Amino acid sequence: MVEPFSEPVHITRPLLPDIEELKVMLESIWSSNQLSNNGKMVKQLELELAAYLGSEQISVFSNGTVALQIACKVLRLEGEVITTPFTFAATVHSLAWNNIKPVFCDIEEDTFNINPDCIEALITQDTTAILPVHVFGNPCNVKKIQKIADKYNLKVLYDAAHAFGVKVNGKPIAAFGDMSMFSFHATKIYHTIEGGALTFNNPYLKERADSLRNFGLRGTENVMEPGTNGKLNEVQAAVGILLLKKVNAEIDCRKKITELYRNSLKDVPGITLSQDMEGVTHNYPYFVIRIDKDKYGLTRDMLYEKLQQYNIISRKYFYPLCSNFQCYRDIPSAAESRLPVANRVADSVLSLPLHGRLAEDDVARICEIIKGMKP
Ligand SMILES: Cc1ncc(COP(=O)(O)O)c(C=O)c1O
């Protein structure tokens, strides 16, 4: 019998900059007397991130949600936008905040991403875009999605909140679609405590994106349109600059832990593990398992509760589906009968602890507990 952990095993722990290096950066900010408003650190971060993410253009924001809201404006989206219900609330809310009607599309059983084969049937004369999510950093079928977008003259805005550093056949994930949004929240593999970015290759879009994050100002006296306050500050940008040096090592650690989980859990009946995709450079942001209650003997919810008794914090990520939120469930496309795969997946997935500082022994112990629980 494996004993419960004496301290909670958290689902994630933030990547932290070296404190001495941060102090040097803070001294530089203090002596500049500029704490916000597109300062030196933000400009440096944008240059370094553009190079890391392989994007011609980038704008950083105070969080990923405001970045997505602004992206809808920059791309002039309106009417209806086809998206996935299997995502974080922010994806769909960003549409609603722009008075755009979300249209929910079912997902693929293996990747949990929007199913491109279901998109065309949802297109109407009001559709202006597709908003897919690279769920858990696994790239969507970017080729098929682009083909549909080209055929119907739709924009593609990717929610790449989880996909920092991911590549498809050597091509950066930011290279696909009209725009991608990355979240730099502290729970992400790379972060600026709170923050986010939009990447795109059209230089004309940057001027608008930067203006919209700064109240719609152009210069100091000209307000072109109703913007918002979506600015990243200098201290957060400094954290971002330092963490860019550490993110590759973090991804390497997470890959190792992912492999430990996969090796240890691969033969457990009723547990399906995520696998690497061919040609994809992964970033290992989450370790997600799927539970088949008939074969494993426990439901996902039972496993979740039992893990808690062992002081292991797992997460039902993404549950509930956005299409089942009170604010969206009356939309016709939100009907459960139209989203059978998404509903099945949301009821059976569980995210296990994964971060670079998770000890190998702890991973082994978590796996023993999961195996031992099977009735
Ligand atoms: C898929 C997805 N989209 C959007 C967001 C919103 O990002 P943020 O928390 O930076 O606002 C998140 C994350 O938290 C997310 O997981």
Describe, in plain words, how this protein is organized in 3D:
There is one protein chain. With 375 residues, the chain is α/β, with parallel strands linked by helices. It is built from 12 helices and 15 strands. The strands form 4 sheets. It has a 7-stranded mixed β-sheet, sandwiched between helices. The chain has a 3-stranded antiparallel β-sheet with strand order 7-6-13, with no helix packed on it. A 3-stranded antiparallel β-sheet has the order 12-14-15. α8 packs parallel to α12. The longest helix is centred in the last third of the chain and has 19 residues. It starts with 18 loop residues before the first helix and ends with a helix. Bound molecules: pyridoxal-5'-phosphate. The site of pyridoxal-5'-phosphate has 14 residues, from α3 and α4.
Short description:
The protein is of the alpha/beta class.
Label this structure with key terms.
single chain, three-stranded antiparallel beta sheet, 375 residues, binds pyridoxal-5'-phosphate, seven-stranded mixed beta sheet, globular, 12 helices, 15 strands, alpha/beta
Q: Oligomer, anyone?
A: single chain
Bound molecules: pyridoxal-5'-phosphate
The poorly predicted ranges are none
Structural class: alpha/beta
Strand content: 5-15%
Outline type: globular
Average per-residue pLDDT, rounded, comes to 97
How many beta-strand runs?
Answer: 15
Strand order of the largest sheet: 1-9-8-5-4-2-3
Helix content: 25-40%
Helix count from the secondary structure assignment: 12
SSE order, one letter for each helix or strand: HHEHEHEEHEEEEEHEEHHEEEHHHEH
Report how far the terminal alpha carbons are from each other: 14 Å
What can be said about the biggest beta sheet?
7 strands, mixed
The rounded Rg comes to 21 Å
